Backbone:
């Protein structure tokens, strides 16, 4: 979703009093504009987010569960949150991320139980250096 070249960009440049919205000095403004545009067009109240106890709470698109304190795949601007009835809050900034594979590699010992590990035995060996042992169920 982008602003159109013939109407959207020139109109926004006039509103913001900038010569070129895509100038490197305006990159942060452009980012906020794009985020606001996505929030306005793509996100619907009580479907993609809810306002609960004065806070905007994202609804996880895969599970349908509420994600309190999280912004999901998109960070909403403070202005957008206020418009939706949410209290102002400090911005979050991700400093580091880690994959599950690398997180689990931090531990000396790993154990688990699943009915599907045998089909992924090669991956467990390659990534975690773990062997998969099949324990047959007992029959009475």
Residues:
């Amino acid at each position: 979703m982008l602003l159109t070249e013939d109407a959207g960009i020139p109109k926004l440049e006039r509103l913001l009093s900038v010569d070129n919205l895509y100038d490197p000095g305006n990159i942060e403004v452009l980012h906020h504009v794009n985020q606001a545009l996505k929030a306005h067009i793509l996100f619907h109240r009580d479907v993609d987010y809810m306002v609960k106890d004065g806070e905007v709470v994202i609804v996880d698109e895969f599970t349908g569960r509420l994600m309190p304190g999280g912004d999901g795949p998109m960070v909403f601007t403070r202005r957008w949150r206020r418009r939706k009835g949410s209290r102002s809050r400090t911005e979050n900034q991700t400093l580091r991320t880690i994959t599950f594979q690398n997180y689990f590699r931090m531990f000396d010992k790993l154990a688990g139980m699943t009915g599907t590990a045998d089909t992924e035995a090669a991956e467990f060996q390659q990534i975690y250096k773990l062997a998969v042992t099949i324990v047959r169920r007992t029959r009475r």
